[in-house]
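pasting for the record
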Amino acid sequence: MKHLLLVSLALCSVSHVFGQEKNDSIPQGFVFTDEITIPVTSVKDQNKSGTCWCFSGTSFFENEIRKAGGDSLDLSEMFTVRYCYLDKADRYVRMYGAANFGPGGSILDVPYVWRRYGAVPEEVYSGLNYGEDKHVHGELDGILKAYVDVIVSKPDKKISTAWRKGFEAVLDTYLGQVPETFTYKGKQYTPQSYAASLGIDPDNYIALTSFTHHPFYEDFIFEVPDNWLWASYTNLPLDELKAVVDNALAKGHTVAWAADVSEGGFKWTDGVAILPKGKDEKDMEGTELSRWVHLSDKDRQNERFDFKGPVEEIAVTQELRQKYFDSQETTDDHGMEIVGTAHDQNGNRYYKVKNSWDTNQKYDGYLYVSEPFFLAKTLNVLVNKKAVPAAIAKKIGIK
């Protein structure tokens, strides 16, 4: 008995060791390996403000300056936000209130302001003039919307000549007055001359999208509320949109990216965004099927997105992408910046994305977006025209 007990204990010990080695060899969660990583400026924090479009667009231009051999800069987002608010208010009033007015914007708003009004460094205009260390815009947004709504209601039967000065005064109070001139690193600038010194020509950039309700290789006004400029985007087939992004990254250019982040597969804290394939009842048997059919729709969705590592994802087609957009399952939520590529432990491909929600998450302000998620949930991108492959550039008239 004693001999048998010793043998049994020995076998248990061996079994435990081998089992432990086997478990240790299985990667837990996602294991990402970066492939392309473009050097970029630091991650910022938009905090409690609806200004992601400006943070992503400003970061994109900061990194285009780096790419061209310039300094690593920290440029003011709130300078751009302020001028967009002014021009939104003008349009809202001229449209009798029948236009979008809010904190949101598009990837073309930053080049619009740079072209029209210029740019300034963050240290010249932080936009924090109301007792906060970070951007908190709830009060400001509410006041500005209430203000323009009173103006378009015309309580005095006409619009006065004072309304815009009053609107500017609110912006000055919260964000600060914009300096006509400023000194930076020993040189004096205006916002226009400073923007000109950065070497960025907004006309060298193109906004691209991919939808079938407009012809490919033509421009159309993108139909989302935050496109308050009614700006035009060039329409490409989905495979060519992806080819442009991949080519840009391969050439060392980042990509400004507008996307839907309302999906359950967008897990910011975990630093990953994927589009898991739902379970198919035809493939289920016995107790699994019995359990599945008794779940509520909400519980089924929760289970679909309760992933701990790589799972099979939806195969995204041009038609599926269009369906998501037409049904408004894909919505215009958030602006970020694609800065590289990576793969997981199973060889699945991802885009590495810089966000503007601070650094207090798994990858210090970055996340990994799967290729299916990108294909399905991209609204549009902004890229340097030099990054567009020659064959595609020819189709859309880029010389």
